[in-house]
Amino acid sequence: MKPAAYRVRGLRWAMIGLIMAGSLLNYLTRSSLSVAVATSPLMATLHMGPREYSWITGAFQGGIMLQPICGYVLDMAGLKIGFAIFATAWSVITMAHGLATGWPALAGLRGLMGFAEGSIHPAGMKTVSLWFPAKERGLAAGVYNIGASFGAMLAPPLVAWAIVAYDWRAAFVITGAIGLVWVLAWLFFFQTPERHRGLSSGERAYIAAGQERFVDVDGAKPSIWRLLGRRVFWGIALPRFLADPTWGTLAFWVPLYLKTVRGFDLAHIAMFAWLPFVAADLGCLFGPVVVLALQKRGVQLVDARRWAFTLGAVMMTGMMFVGQVQSPYLAVALLCLGGFAHQTLSVTVITMASDLFPKREVGTVAGMAGTFGNFGVLLFSLLIGALVSRVGYSPFFIALGLLDLLGAVLLWTLVKPPALSDPTSAISEPLLP
Question: What's the pTM?
């Protein structure tokens, strides 16, 4: 490999490390509430039960469903400044959680926080699409998505420590303040390849050589309505609608499940609630490795991603037995399998936005697909809140084990790999013939 290639490799992985840290803090702040609910008097203080808690998580999902706005802002205003604004907003709003005096106020804050935090996946995918050639984007997306798992993994011990040392209000102030420190690092270190002063013209050409060759036929601005008319968009969005409730359940409901059903106390939650997210970290890397292995055997990139998604969907069937096993530790092990399987397939389908759409549309597409994913989380969370006291958690775990199989069917049915001779074939295919 030429020296320029080595230099570019170091810079692009530095950019991914920066966005991974942002993802870590994004998921740390959003996961802090579920841990505080399970390990502190927060629910009693704010006069809330499972139903009110589901409305609060629903407010967050309602806010995060506005991801297309975040993606559009990032596409139009620029990744560096746009994402810094969103990250500052979610950090300040997180700190304001400590001022809540009732559950309606907390719900309002969570809705605002959801809107700001919806920027993470559009920002991550834009970073990946700018700095990496198409064949390496799966691994890059897997690395930055590790931040999501690490953030959710760090939430139980960090929040539990803050509650023991101070109180539940301090937990939100601490996690939000860490986010503000990261914003300074982002503004200081991040830059696009076109504007990075450390890159020579030859190194920029090296990065550009591996980019997709989409033909810009519709002007500079992405059109949401035109994207909604493409079958390939629905091939990404609908599997996310079916897959994302797993992550929402792990992040928002598992600590409460371990407390109320499995009898875990604060110490046990701090010890075990983060384990599914460790497994999810491994899934972030396993999915891209599967894709690369299939490509080496001659499988086309989009087909390789579909096979990786399908493998993850098959592994997800283990979630059906979480509520059936007697041992709480076996239940945690099955939750770990679910975290691993979910990230195997999730990072795969998220990355497909950069495979099938031009760079100028990646942020918007990722945001729109994220809206459908978070709408799935919203519906599933509201159902848990309304029915869990009557039917328990088992039916919901069974549903999570089956939904991704349907997602795999839709992925194979709706996504058409771009023809090598026509780089616009996949992105211009209409929903209806």
Answer: 0.73
First to last CA, the chain: 45
- Rg for the chain, CA atoms, rounded: 21
pLDDT in tens, 232-263: 899 999 999 999 999 889 888 888 899 889 99
* Burial status of residue 383 (CB atoms within 10 A of its CB: 0-12, 13-18, 19 or more): middle
Nearest alpha carbon to residue 247 among 366, 346, 359, 327: 346
Give me the pLDDT at residue 203, please.
67
Report CA dihedral (255, 367, 346, 353) to the nearest 10 degrees: -170
Query: What is the helix (H) or strand (E) element at residue 78, kind and residue range?
Result: none
- The ranges of the chain with pLDDT < 70 are 1-9, 134-135, 199-200, 202-203, 206-222, 359, 363, 418-433
- State the alpha helices, DSSP H only, in 253-393: 254-260, 266-272, 275-296, 301-316, 328-356, 359-391
Question: What span, in angstroms and rounded, lies between the C-alpha atoms of 415 and 410?
Answer: 8
Amino acid type, 388: V
pLDDT on residue 431: 43
- The CATH number assigned to the domain with range 3-193+221-428 reads 1.20.1250.20
Mind listing the pLDDT tens digit for each residue in 390-403? 899 999 999 999 99
Element (H, E) at 299: none
State the Cα–Cα distance between residues 35 and 171, nearest whole angstrom.
Answer: 10
Which residues are registered as beta bridge partners of 230?
Answer: 430
The DSSP output letter for 221 is S
Take residue 287 and report the two structure tokens written for it.
């999915």
Using CA of residue 346, residue 352, residue 357, residue 360, what is the dihedral sign?
positive
DSSP 347-363: HHHHHHHHHHS-HHHHH
Which residue bears the tokens 């986010």? Answer: 179
State the burial class of residue 188 (Cβ atoms within 10 Å of its Cβ: 0-12, 13-18, 19+).
exposed
Are the beta carbons of 189 and 114 closer than 8 angstroms? no
pLDDT of residue 422: 42
| CB of 25 closer than 8 Å to CB of 151 | yes
Instruction: Tell me the domain boundaries of the chain.
Output: 3-193+221-428
Cβ contacts of residue 327 below 8 Å, gap of 6+?
A: none
